[in-house]
Amino acid sequence: SLDELMERRPSQLSGGQQQRVALARAIACRPDVFLFDEPLSNLDARLRLEARGFLKQLQHDLATTAVFVTHDQSEALALADRMAVMELGEIRQVGTPSDLFHHPANLFVAGFIGSTPMNLVPGTAGSDGVTFEGGVLPVAAPTIPVAGRDVEAAHVVYGIRPEYVDVTEPSDGLDGTVTVTENLGTQFLVTVEIGGVQLRATVPEGDEPRLGDRVGLAPDARRALLYDAATGSLLG
Fold first, then answer.
1. 69 vs 150, residue with greater confidence
2. How much is the pTM?
3. How far is CA 35 from CA 23, 80, 172, in A?
4. 3-81 homologous superfamily
5. pLDDT by residue (tens digit) across 88-112?
6. Pick the CATH number of 119-228 from 3.40.50.11260, 2.40.50.140, 3.40.630.30, 3.30.200.20
């Protein structure tokens, strides 16, 4: 509520309070388009979640176009109907949040979108997958054109999200050593070193391995993406 702030001057408000007052004033004007430039940045985590839900509901109820600028990709994924990701003033991809999460068009977007970053592994594509120092990573379609030639024997970057990598017994996947485990609440983010490369996977709480354990990693080939190592563009 803003009731307790009514008698205060702007200089007497905290940063978060100033943002809420400015937001309320903008809404009261009933504009044709809202332009929000990081309106939630000074709020604490709990209030930010509440304000995010309020803004999304308000935008839906008012049926008013809103342009929301943020450096917080989780905030963008939660709020947007369509997203534009920019790098150094250039738009790198435009699409729905699902498009950008599941099919990032280039390595910049792939590394930016997602609260747990996508695994990005340089390697050489062949008929059986992408070969890197730790073994062969499976792909569903290893004959995608790269600049007019087949991807086979081409230098590529293999991309897969940690959510699509299973932790298995060493004999059932790429064999490596657990170097980091991070508790995310209902799941753990597990980092495994394989051939000098760090790969991440998520596992349910209670199934997490211990530091130093030998485990296998089994990426879902259907979820794997290939990028041209020279241009950084998504293949296929």
1. 69
2. 0.83
3. 10, 13, 51
4. P-loop containing nucleotide triphosphate hydrolases (3.40.50.300)
5. 999 999 999 999 999 999 999 999 9
6. 2.40.50.140
